């Protein structure tokens, strides 16, 4: 089961990279309404890469998504997740808009100095 989750995340990240690269090549062309708010694409690679700086963080977050168990998220992962720009969230988790604020609130308990959701 773990290898399926990792494979899913790798495929998702690769798709995100290709979409982001395609969007960046469309310089000054009109954007699709609702795809990127206010006409400026979010750098998804940058959003995800910050999570990859902490070993196992992406896997921890994926486990939380599928299990709903927030107890196993490490402090280092919480710190990085809490520092993400809130504009990344809808693009990183388009199918679950309630997940990022829930994780950030939980992380505020794990890492007391991290800000609560915006």
From TrEMBL:
Pfam families tied to this protein: Prolamin_like
Signal peptide positions (record): 1-22
Keyword Signal: yes
Keywords: Signal
Prolamin-like domain span: 46-107
CC annotations in GO: extracellular region; vesicle
Record keyword Cytoplasm present: no
GO annotation, biological process: double fertilization forming a zygote and endosperm; regulation of double fertilization forming a zygote and endosperm; regulation of protein localization to cell surface
Official protein name in the record: Prolamin-like domain-containing protein
Organism field: Microthlaspi erraticum
Taxonomic placement: Eukaryota, Viridiplantae, Streptophyta, Embryophyta, Tracheophyta
């Amino acid at each position: 089961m773990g290898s399926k989750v990792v494979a899913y995340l790798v495929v998702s990240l690769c798709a995100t990279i290709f979409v982001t690269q395609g969007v960046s090549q469309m310089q000054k062309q009109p954007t699709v309404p609702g795809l990127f708010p206010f006409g400026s694409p979010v750098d998804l690679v940058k959003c995800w890469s910050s999570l990859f700086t902490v070993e196992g963080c992406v896997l921890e977050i994926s486990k939380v998504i599928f299990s709903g168990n927030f107890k196993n998220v490490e402090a280092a992962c919480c710190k990085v997740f809490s520092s993400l720009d809130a504009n990344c969230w809808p693009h990183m988790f388009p199918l679950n808009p309630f997940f990022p604020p829930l994780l950030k609130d939980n992380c505020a308990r794990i890492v007391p100095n991290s800000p609560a959701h915006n």
